[in-house]
Amino acid sequence: MSNRFDLKNLLPHLGAFALFLALATFYFYPQLQGKVLQQGDILSGIGMSHEVQKYYEETGNISYWTDAMFGGMPTYQMWYPKSMNLFRTADKLIKAWISYPIGMFLGLMVVLYLSMLAFRVDRRVSLIMAPAFAFSIYFLLLIDAGHNSKINAISYFGFILAGLYLLLERRKYLWGAIVLAIGAGFELAANHIQMTYYYLLALLPFLIAFLIKWILEKSWGQLGKFAGYASIAAIAALLSGASIYLPTLEYQKDTMRGKPILSKGTLGTGANSSSETVGLDYTYATRWSNNIGDVFSSMVPNVVGGGNVAYNTSGTLASELRRRGFNAPKINLYWGGLDSTGGPAYFGVIVWLLFIVGIWSLRGPLQWGFMASMLFILLISLGKNAGFFNELLYNYLPLFNKFRAPSSAISVAVFLAVTGGALGLNELLFSKKKANEKLVILKRAGITLGAILGLILISGLFFFTFKGSMDSQFEQAGILDAVIDERTSLFWKSLGRSILFAGIAWGVLWYAIKQKWNLTYVAFGLGTLILVDLWGVGRQFVNNDSFVTAKQRKDYYTPRPVDQLILKDKDPDFRVFDLTGDPFNSSFASYFHKTIGGYHPAKLQRYQDLIDRYISQNHQPVLNMLNTKYYIVNDDQKKPTVQPNTRALGNVWFVDNYMIVETADQEFNGLNGLDPGSRAIIHKEFASQLEGFQPTKGGTISLTSYAPNRLVFSSDAPSEQLAVFSEIWYGPNKGWNAYVDGEPANLLRADYALRAMRVPAGQHTIEMRFEPSSVKIGKTISLITSGLLLLLFVGYLIYPYVASNGNPKKEKQHA
After folding, report:
1. Shortest CA distance to 75 belongs to which of 241, 261, 244?
2. Are the CB atoms for 52 and 75 separated by under 8 Å?
3. Which residues, including other chains, have CB under 8 Å from residue 646's CB and lie 6 or more apart?
4. What do you get for the CA distance between the two ends of the chain, in Å?
């Protein structure tokens, strides 16, 4: 390779970038009109983080704590600006500083295209497989739902695999380590731990396959070099993500995904609690599990009715619905293993064909790696429907029980199918294999795909019932048989469609090889066919009608009359319990108020225990100690109305006495029957701080200044007091620091989940500040490491050109 920089070498890549941008813009054209996707998860996130975002806009200060949900919790996994991780800035560069969805789908295509360079895949193959990756129906559904961080994490799978391939297969150790570190750095910056974890599991079969090869060949040197370089890359990437993961790791220990606090059975409600298992409860964790029909949907989109989209009906069902007054009869026909879904996880039947070509054409560890990894990930996605397998992983595989919704593992299968398919297509069209060898591979792939489609056909004939778990509504309406007929019809139409697309693609490849057609035309013809297939399905679920104006989305958070009434109360800190819906699965009220409920998949464990035993049972003393000043309930006409709670204890109060208990169970059970306004329960771990202290209640204490990360109280007492604050405990030494007249003071835990402290006699100013050292340390590490990694990457790319000083001396290529 000549080291003289030549713009002509970049032109094909710039052309690819332009094509990707054009495709993303065409699909999501309403974005150019100022419209946005509704995105339920983003709307929920706005409610979660509104308090701290508003605080930042008004003061310029960042709070890593919010009181808007569940009494109070860290914001690490809901809003985390200025992480000092430069990979986040580089991520914007890859997406050309274009916002989502256009920028996000541009990123999906660009990263996969660049990743294929390491595999020496022909540029034409990369050019058509990158859109096949981005426009997989699953990713369209993710962006529509608002799972942006999940898509971001998936985007960078390619860089990691490219780095590993350079290390494992091509033995380019330094360059491979750099690419691996860069890819892992981007991956961690995306901050979706579950997707990263599933992807690491998918890489295990590749590593095992290469390990077996090295052992059989006694290639100890290769093994040692790989282990060394890969370890350095992994450590560097982990350090670059320290600003996000140090606080998160610290936090997760205290969440419902951490170790148990209570003994099994302590709740006494029959509920499965996070405090009764390490990690998440198995039933809760596997609730969102695919069944075999959902997996088949990756090849035939409407095997189980597609998704939660209303299909135009026909025949008996249409007639019945019209008879009941529906002029344009539409109905949701999904009957798969999930409670609900936006649509099928359709990869594209042509992509599946190419993946199978890859399995038949690749050799050695790559072949076994792709095959075993795909099977492994699909089994994980089945969750409870592959019970024995997933129970083993849940019980014995580290961290596996920290995550819910195993169905989401299907996103990793999309990546495997596309990358394996790219390698397969490259072998079929652009390798030096003889035509007869290629035809044998294609024939085997066709037979394999045909066998799978045949299995789906047989399932439809003999095994599928076309009944779903949510069919009681149809049965009660007397239309279940007609719905089943409609589902059956949709199944056969969808299967026929997949057979047609697969047959056309297979035929094009067969005659292209046999007749030696122009491979450029073949590649782009195939790419067009893939897009027609994917967009034909995708537009059913995500289309121009999925967009709304920015004002329409903003108007979602229009305060109700009850919210406006409560907002007239200028008390700076009280809580609201909204019971008009599911209080623990909605962040709507959190947009306006500090709430008892909210929505977050990683609540503090102590608070979850309060929910399970006390709050869900409307236990008044516990709600009083949480300073629940207002309830929002539905009246007899189902209209939201406000009920004041005059017994709320306020922000802080002095107690008459306290009792020391030995165990967390006693601490928790003691809340039943406790008068929290006069007595506090203290765990023995804080007993030394109260030794010899017998409070005599007297004096006053009140909140004088509120910010989510800084509370100021004023006290005036004739003697030393024990104050209990209606603030959620998070500690010790995890960020909340107390000060009396500017001097550090100790915080204690009271009543299982609240903060308390000894307050000296006299007049004093008491402060609580949230100052997590993990954030400060993490940001410093991230800034240094991410900066060095990106500099190393850029330096390694440009060094040959700089070193040559214009002398076109031949050098080895990096990739």
Report:
1. 244
2. yes
3. none
4. 11
Side-chain-side CA neighbours of 241 within 13 Å: the count stands at 23
Domain ranges of the chain: 286-517, 555-644, 652-771
Q: Rounded to whole angstroms, how far apart are CA atoms 587 and 281? A: 23
Contact indicator for 711, 767 with CB cutoff of 8 Å: yes
pLDDT of 271 above 50: no
Tell which wins on pLDDT, 7 or 281.
Answer: 281
Length of the chain counted residue by residue: 815
Give the tens place of pLDDT for each residue, 219-262.
Answer: 999 999 999 999 999 999 999 999 999 999 999 999 988 888 99
d(C-alpha 137, C-alpha 361), whole Å = 27
Helix (H, G, I), strand (E, B) or coil at 258: coil
Backbone torsions φ then ψ of 50, nearest 5 degrees: -60, -40
Q: What is the pLDDT of residue 790?
A: 96
Which band of pLDDT confidence, cut at 50, 70 and 90, is reported for residue 311?
low
Alpha-carbon distance values, 774 to 247, 418, 718, 755, 780 (Å): 5, 39, 38, 21, 10
Phi (first) and psi of residue 196, to 5 degrees: -60, -40
Position 327 scores a pLDDT of: 55
Say if residue 2's pLDDT is above 50. Answer: no
CA 648 to CA 226: how far, in whole Å?
62
CA distances from 312 to 10, 172, 249, 303 (A): 48, 55, 48, 17
Compute the C-alpha angle 594/599/603, nearest 5°.
Answer: 90
Q: Summarize pLDDT for 95-104 with one digit per residue, the tens.
A: 999 999 999 9
> Cα(38)–Cα(145) distance, rounded to whole angstroms?
8
Backbone torsion region of residue 636, taken as left when φ is above 0, otherwise alpha when ψ lies between -120 and 50, otherwise beta: alpha
Pairing label, strands 35-37, 640-644:
unpaired
d(CA 232, CA 176): 11
Pick the closest to residue 70 from 609, 703, 669, 563 (CA basis).
609
Look at residues 762, 759, 728, 726 and name the one whose alpha carbon lies nearest to residue 745.
759
pLDDT of residue 626: 98
Closest CA to 768 of 777, 755, 778: 755
Question: Which DSSP helix (H) or strand (E) runs through 149?
Answer: helix 148-155
Query: Is the per-residue pLDDT at 609 higher than 90?
Result: yes
> What band does 476 get if pLDDT is binned at 50, 70 and 90?
confident
| Type and span of the H or E element at 452 | helix 435-458
Average pLDDT, the chain: 92
Question: Helices 349-361 & 480-515, crossing angle to 10 degrees?
Answer: 50
Token pair recorded at residue 248: 């998160």
Which amino acid would we find at residue 248? T
Q: What is the pLDDT of residues 498-555, one digit of tens each?
A: 999 999 999 999 999 998 889 999 999 999 999 999 999 999 999 999 999 999 988 9
Phi then psi for residue 129, to 5 deg, are: -80, -25
306, 311, 468 from 333: Cα distances, Å? 7, 7, 9
If one counts every other C-beta atom within 10 angstroms of the C-beta of residue 496, the result is 12
